Structure to design on (656 residues):
């Protein structure tokens, strides 16, 4: 990045990077979107015109400098243009989770005093209308898809296309005003405000500057040599910091193309059609893909099952070394090459990951077995560790230095510090400015020297110099025996099994560990169909004796694995139950990014936890649930509690 004589960076904002790309990448694809089964494309020059028209329209509709503009919808080029248009007009975009319910939307809109909302369709507009009486600062709503909205009161509603049309009509009148607002943007101007997932309480508005976003995007792009010719698929929530950095920050810095799928149902097909070269997915996505693979193999012939197992066993042994260009024998290379022709190549193509040059996973720890599975196929999957407050990147794994147990070395420009209590602290150009209207939380998280407390416990591994995260610092504890308690370690091992969707471990301060388990309905349902087992609901299937027996086998196998860990062998599961319902974000048990809200789960299912520890063979419970239409209801169930086989760690230590 060059610096002009004034000391101001040449590209001090996202709109400045857009203007640059419209010149040097003018004919290259900037955005693609699949609509009605057809891919539509916009070049960087065309995207710049779309953004300019909307920015002028926003100014004409009364958008002021410093206003907050909420963005509510799925990944679409228009919604990304809305964020950049708001920035160009001197305002601050605030993307929201598209599946947020009215109460969650109302909290964010009220907290940031949003004056403008750009919503995707009738569903999102209806959510705003339901809570608009509580939004005293709301000035205008712009909607993208007009279907179903023709008879609505349009005194404060404007179609997206009409806002752009208004901007084009007012161009001669407002062009100088818009140019002045864009030119006023500096490296320290606010680029975006993103709300945390609210794992432990109300979400906080994280204020990120242009400096935070651009410096982080530049450093991380150079780390992995991202180029203008790369392709990504933008499908993760726009309110999540990762999507903003990948689909806006890095995309605008490097000039690569952002591809938006048609909808969630066509995602896998769209992924295969695009064949991204740069790909990110949270562990849950990789877990789901692996589950689907295993389900398909259950329906395969005995020979195909045998061939798949033999090939994958060989891939697990030599695939990662071949990927990292480590020495591998000629015979093993030949066998791997043949396996690639018959198994690995077609499988990667089915998953849509054939062209992936750089792949990342983050958000929470991924099970080592799942991670190794993808790398054994020749997919350059790596881990990164980050936070909203860091503009994502704290550590990254370099090519040739990938470990399933670690999350990488410090990203360029990042400093790490492991404090005496084991908590990880960092400092970098990406460190957030503040929590909006929350100076106390800002001071608790970031000190005067810019060091940020991650809330995670970890250590630097000797030799590799990579960071290993044990668990959330608040979740890591001691058992009554003094043994270390780190729930994520065990939970991720359980989630490697396709039948298990989610697991929650308990044991801090107690003599033994116990667990809740959610079955994966697609995997277990497929098994039930193949075995002619009828079931009427998730609850009925989760309590089926054969399902419980299968989960018991998985728990016992995990206990064998955990017993081998010198630090965490005390976390073996003594008793468990299979929950009668899936943990759900709408019920408050998960965040919108699908992270378990442990404290809420502990409070909500206290009766079940008590039964796990008092020796009861079963427990009856009633649980409140929220339906998709907003109604509340309850479900009752009697759950069987199972005892697991616990390995004798003393015998293991004696044998060693």
């Amino acid at each position: 990045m060059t610096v002009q004589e004034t000391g101001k960076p040449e590209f001090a904002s996202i709109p400045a990077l857009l203007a640059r790309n419209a010149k040097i990448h003018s004919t290259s694809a900037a955005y693609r979107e699949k609509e009605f089964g057809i891919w539509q494309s916009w070049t960087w020059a065309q995207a710049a015109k779309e953004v300019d028209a909307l920015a002028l329209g926003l100014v004409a509709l009364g958008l002021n400098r410093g206003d907050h503009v909420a963005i509510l919808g799925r990944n679409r080029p228009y919604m990304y243009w809305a964020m950049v248009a708001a920035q160009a007009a001197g305002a601050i975009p605030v993307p929201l989770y598209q599946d947020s319910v009215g109460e969650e939307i109302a909290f964010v809109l009220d907290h940031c005093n949003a004056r403008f909302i750009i919503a995707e369709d009738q569903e999102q507009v209806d959510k705003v209308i339901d809570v608009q009486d509580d939004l005293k600062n709301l000035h205008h709503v712009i909607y993208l898809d007009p279907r179903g909205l023709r008879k609505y009161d349009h005194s404060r509603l404007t179609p997206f296309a009409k806002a752009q049309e208004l901007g084009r009509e007012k161009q001669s009148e407002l062009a100088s005003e818009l140019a002045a607002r864009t030119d006023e943007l500096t490296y320290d101007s606010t680029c975006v405000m993103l709300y945390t997932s609210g794992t432990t309480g109300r979400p906080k508005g994280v204020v990120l500057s242009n400096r935070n976003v651009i410096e982080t995007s530049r450093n991380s792009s150079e780390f992995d040599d991202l180029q203008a010719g790369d392709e990504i698929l933008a499908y993760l929530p726009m309110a999540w910091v990762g999507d903003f950095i990948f689909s806006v920050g890095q995309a605008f810095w490097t000039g690569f193309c952002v591809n938006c799928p048609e909808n969630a149902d066509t995602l896998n097909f769209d992924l295969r059609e695009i064949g991204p070269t740069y790909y990110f997915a949270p562990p849950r996505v990789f877990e789901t893909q692996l589950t689907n693979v295993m389900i398909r193999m259950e329906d395969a012939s005995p020979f195909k099952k045998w061939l798949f197992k033999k090939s994958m066993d060989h891939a697990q042994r030599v695939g990662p070394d071949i990927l990292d260009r480590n020495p591998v024998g000629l015979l093993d290379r030949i066998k791997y090459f043949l396996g690639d022709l018959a198994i690995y190549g077609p499988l990667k193509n089915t998953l849509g990951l054939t062209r992936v040059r750089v792949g990342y996973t983050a958000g929470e720890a991924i099970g080592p077995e799942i991670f190794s599975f993808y790398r054994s196929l020749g997919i350059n999957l790596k881990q990164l560790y980050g936070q909203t407050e860091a503009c994502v990147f704290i550590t990254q794994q370099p090519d040739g230095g990938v470990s399933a147990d670690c999350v990488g070395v410090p990203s360029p420009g990042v400093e790490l510090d492991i404090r005496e209590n084991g908590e990880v602290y960092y400092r970098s150009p990406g460190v957030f400015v503040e929590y909006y209207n929350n100076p106390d939380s800002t001071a608790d998280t970031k000190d005067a020297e810019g060091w940020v407390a991650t809330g995670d416990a970890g250590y630097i591994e000797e030799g590799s110099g990579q960071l290993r995260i044990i668990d959330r610092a608040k979740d890591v504890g001691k058992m009554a025996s003094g043994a270390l308690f780190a729930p994520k370690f065990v939970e991720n091992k359980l989630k490697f099994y396709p039948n298990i969707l989610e697991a929650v471990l308990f044991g801090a301060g107690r003599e033994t560990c116990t667990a809740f388990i959610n079955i994966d309905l697609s995997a277990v349902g497929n098994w039930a169909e193949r075995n002619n087992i009828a079931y009427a609901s998730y609850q009925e299937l989760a309590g089926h004796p054969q399902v419980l027996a299968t989960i018991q086998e998985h728990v016992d196998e995990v206990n064998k694995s955990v017993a081998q860990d010198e630090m965490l062998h005390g976390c073996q599961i003594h008793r468990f139950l299979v929950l009668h319902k899936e943990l759900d974000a709408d019920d408050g048990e998960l965040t919108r990014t699908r992270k378990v809200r442990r404290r809420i789960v502990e409070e909500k299912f206290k009766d079940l936890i008590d039964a796990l520890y008092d020796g009861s063979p079963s427990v009856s419970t009633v649980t409140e649930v929220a339906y998709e239409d907003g109604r509340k209801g309850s479900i009752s169930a009697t759950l069987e509690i199972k005892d697991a086989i616990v390995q004798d760690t003393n015998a293991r230590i004696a044998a060693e």
Q: What stands out?
A: Residues 1-7, 651-656 have pLDDT under 50 and may be disordered.
